[in-house]
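Now read these lines:
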Amino acid sequence: MSFKVEQEEKTPAAAQEAHEQESAPAEESIPETAEAVQPAEGQDARKRPKAESAKARRRKAQRERAKILAAARQLHAERVSDEIAIRFEHVTKTYHLCSNDMSRVLSVFGVKSKGYVDAINANDDLSFEIRKGEAVAFLGLNGAGKSTALKMICGVTHPTSGELTVNGRVSALLELSAGFDKKLTGRENIKLRGQILGLSSEELEEIIPQAIEFADLGKYIDQPMRSYSSGMRARLGFALAVSVRPEILVVDEALSVGDAKFRKRCIRRIREIMMDQNVTLLFVTHSSSAAKALCSRGIVLEKGRKLYDGSYEEASRFYQERI
């Protein structure tokens, strides 16, 4: 089906006005070349320099932030201790795939019934060491075993074989909105999660105001969490995780949720923790800019195995070549 639009016949004055509107440059566009800086005839010449100066200020601010991030990462790398925070020694994690619940239960006891499908090694003979104070990014495609390794570090699951050693209090940003009771208020959930983490009453009294301030939920902090949006739950989960003074901070795709402002606050807060408390950071994300800003070391995983372990820049280059 085609449509034919007839052009309305215009008077000379209307045609001249339309021509002027079409020829006028957009106010939001910023020239890229020196020739484009010259204002068009009849245009206010004062608007162009203002736009250019705003763009120059943004570029200058970006360069300054990049320098600060590089200096902070270098300083954090210099603070790395010789003590071992995490050690994987030939760790294998096997998941049994079954077609029904009964077969799944029997597979726990090593019984392969008719509903047994297959066994998958999410981590396969994985070995590495991470020293206290290191910031390590785990790189790999979906299904490479990154999240499984972090879950074992957090104690959510355990190795099928091999030995795993973790020294220090672990705070995890795995599923920011998971583990909350929707019937309880935000404040009550902070207390509950703190008690589960084994925090004392004195520590809770110190942490709760910090978490509430960072979450910035206003009056919603005393409302049941069933009234929260997904973004509000994520903000509360992140605020709690970074307020417990962790010795090992685990971040698994947590920064992919929320808006741009929330992500900037997350990265800034993680950087503050790294510099002030010299924590060990384990970072999984598909955002190379975020990993580059925080991590000095990279480990590339594929099908549960370690393929590369080195500086983040070299690990990132190796990973990009693999994909």
User: Anything to note?
Assistant: The two ends are 44 Å apart (CA to CA). Residues 183-245 form one domain. Residues 47-78 form the longest helix (32 residues). Strands lie at 84-98, 116-131, 135-139, 161-166, 170-173, 248-252, 280-284, 297-302, 305-311.
